[in-house]
Amino acid sequence: MSYAYLIVRLSALAYTPNYRAYTLCGHGAVDTIEFLVSAGKSREEFMAIKQVKGVADIPSSELDDWGPVPEPVSETVSQLRGRIINENPDGSEAGIWECTPGTWTRLVMDAEISSFVTGHALFHPENGETVDIKAGDTVYFDNNSKGTWEVLETVRKTYLTFKRD
Q1: How many whole angstroms separate alpha carbon 39 and alpha carbon 49?
Q2: What pairs with residue 151 in β-bridges?
Q3: Dist CA 108 CA 141 (whole Å)
Q4: pLDDT score, position 146
Q5: How far is residue 53's CA from residue 30's CA, in Å, rounded to a whole number?
Q6: Which of 34, 158, 159, 160: CA 20 to 30 A from 87?
């Protein structure tokens, strides 16, 4: 079964590979009409909004096991768990990340913004002062931010990584 949806929008279009957009150059309040065309998808599958409730309360066992950190620098090897909420062809992604105590080298070289919901960690950048991170904190890492994670209590965060020139 195929579905088609008509959305009238007053702003400019953003490219999304999930639909075809047709622009109507008209007069008056309506300047764009978008047609969402799908083969067997519901309207909800076109929605760009995804919600995960109670991120801090999700049992660790319900997150995907991502294994040990690749470059530990302490005897205690941190274990990673998480859930990818959205990923894009360019490698950027949004998700939930959890890490057990240990010390290790940060390998993500994309820009990242993270909101920590549980735990306590220190981030020691190669250049700069140590960042003390606790539940409730939001941290931005610019692309190519290098340093060492020191996780003191299991931390969980929501994150968005993205490409930045």
Answers
A1: 20
A2: 102, 121
A3: 10
A4: 94
A5: 36
A6: 34
CATH 2.60.120.10 domain position(s) in the chain: 55-162
The C-alpha atoms of residue 9 and residue 14 are separated, in whole angstroms, by: 11
**Half-sphere exposure (Cβ direction) of 140: Cα atoms closer than 13 Å:** 3
pLDDT tens readout for residues 39-68: 455 555 555 788 999 999 999 999 999 999
Which of the residue ranges 32-36, 76-80, 96-100, 148-152 would you say has the lowest mean pLDDT? 32-36
pLDDT digits (tens, 9 = 90+) for 6-28: 333 333 334 444 443 333 333 33
User: CA–CA separation, 164 vs 143, rounded Å?
Assistant: 7
